[in-house]
Amino acid sequence: MKFYKYTGLGNDFVLINNLKCNVDIDSRLAKAMCDRHFGIGADGIVLASPSKSCDIRMEIYNSDGSIAEMCGNASRCFAKFCYEKNLIKRESFTVETLAGTIVPKLYIEDGIVKNVTVDMGQPKFGSKDIPFKVNLDKVVDYPIRIDGKEYIITSMFMGVPHTVVFTDEIEDEKVIAEGRKIETSEYFPRKTNVNFASIINRNEIVLRTWERGAGYTMACGTGSCAAVVAGIESGRLNNKVKVHLRGGDLTIEWKVGEKVQMTGEAKEVFTGEYEI
Question: Which residue among the candidates 34, 71, 82, 225 is catalytic per the annotation?
Answer without folding.
Answer: 71
